[in-house]
Amino acid sequence: MAQSICIRLQKHRVPFRAGQSDLDDQFEKLLRRFHHHRGELSLHTNQPKLSLSSYSTFIQMLREQIGDQPRGTDQSLGVALNELGCAHLQNANCSEAEDCFKKSLIRLVLSTAQQISTSMPLINLAFAYWLQGHFPKASSTFQQALEDREETYGVNDKTSFV
User: How far apart are CA 14 and CA 23, in angstroms?
Assistant: First the structure.
């Protein structure tokens, strides 16, 4: 319902006039947020197809808005690719999930974000390897994620994990 309201408002709005804020950008941002939030809720309420379609739409809209080039510390596309990978795992598309997690890692490393930002996609990549039966790769990837987290948060950290 929220999506249809936003689309109708966007179609029937008064044309942009100088001195007013551009509503197109605001509607676009609202629609992106809608798809992101619907993807997140679907992911955590076990609605695999809806989570996959919502995150796919969110990433497409995000790429149209910001492009594919890293922008300083902006981690939005890297984080979104990690979430899309989780949606692929939920749909038993392990190789697609692996690809998303690798792309997420690349995006996060290319941004000037902190090393710990790669923690979740690295852990998820290890799960994707494990689910595909690539146990040595899974083990070494889990080990790398653990070492990264221990370097930042200390050994046996129990408070930082989201």
Answer: 9
Q: At what angle do helices 23-44 and 76-90 cross, to 10 degrees?
A: 40
Say how far apart CA 60 and CA 36 lie, in whole Å: 11
- Terminal CA-CA length for the chain: 30
69, 97 contact by CB (below 8 A) = no
pTM of the predicted model over 0.70: yes
Half-sphere CA count of 46, side-chain side, radius 13 A = 0
- Which parts of 17-159 fold into alpha helices (H)? 23-44, 48-66, 76-90, 94-110, 119-131, 135-153
Count other Cβ atoms within 10 Å, centred on residue 151: 11
- Residue entry with tokens 């076990």: 46
Give 155: exposed, middle or buried? Use CB within 10 Å, 0-12, 13-18, 19+. exposed
Burial degree of 10 (CB within 10 A; 0-12, 13-18, 19+): middle
Q: Give the tens place of pLDDT for each residue, 55-76.
A: 999 999 988 888 777 666 678 8
